[in-house]
Design goal:
The chain is mostly helical. 90% of the residues lie in helices and 0% in strands. The protein contains 5 helices and no strands. The protein is rod-shaped, with a radius of gyration of 26 Å. The relative contact order is 0.16.
Length: 229
């Protein structure tokens, strides 16, 4: 009875992991509009520097850094979008595979000691195949989560870089005379965007950390349960 309870709890955990992956996917997609806004900001910065003529020379140097920042953010976000789709698919497969495993467990209980046309070895072999697929998908999902963790890591550095560029832009705005208003507008927007990026990436790292811990726990449970037969 306790085995059945343990199995049921594992099934619930796999369903929870799938829902966590879907939530993480939703959160990561919120980064896409930010990347587009970063590109728009860099275009605005270039236009502001061009209108300022020679008075915008120092600010023009900053626009190059802002453009580079936008490119780095976009590249980082693009890579996360690719891996999260794989993560959601793997989590879905794990939930389905574990459902198949529980079906075989139920059959073993119902058919134990009974004469049946189909060999018991057939059910054992089929269940072992499901177990092997579970183990393989567990490893793939864990590796993918590790990859995503590495992809999200640079965002914190990019946020710091963006904050620094926003400060520098404000300094240039203060000494740019009539063009200072447009320079300050760029600075304010940059500060706002990197602030949003920092908050969202922190939320995503938290979700990813919880997800990784859940997967580690589930792998330990699997080792105790699935190979006990």
């Amino acid at each position: 009875m306790s085995g059945n309870l343990h199995t049921r709890r594992m099934g619930e955990e796999y369903n929870t992991i799938f829902r966590q992956c879907v939530s993480l996917n939703t959160e990561l997609h919120k980064l896409v509009p930010l990347a587009k806004q970063m590109h728009l900001l860099s275009s605005n910065a270039v236009s502001s520097a061009a209108r300022a003529g020679s008075e915008g020379d120092a600010f023009r140097v900053l626009t190059q850094d802002i453009q580079l920042l936008g490119d780095e953010v976009s590249e980082c976000i693009g890579d996360t979008q690719k891996i999260i789709a794989q993560i959601v698919k793997l989590a879905s497969n794990l939930a389905k595979l574990f459902t198949n495993y529980t079906i075989f467990e139920d059959l073993h209980g119902r058919l134990e000691g009974k004469d049946i046309v189909t060999s018991h070895k057939f059910f054992d072999s089929s269940q072992k195949q499901v177990v092997d697929e579970l183990r393989a998908n567990n490893h793939k999902l864990s590796r993918s989560l590790g990859t995503l963790t590495n992809l999200l890591a640079p965002i914190a550095i990019l946020v710091k870089k963006g904050e620094y560029l926003a400060v520098c832009s404000s300094v240039e705005a203060a000494s740019a005379g009539e063009h200072g208003v447009s320079f300050e507008a760029v600075s304010s927007m940059l500060r706002e965007l990197v602030g949003q990026l920092g908050l969202q990436s922190a939320r995503q790292r938290s979700l990813l950390r919880d997800l990784s811990e859940a997967m580690e726990k589930q792998q330990n449970n699997q080792g105790k349960l699935l190979y006990a037969r």
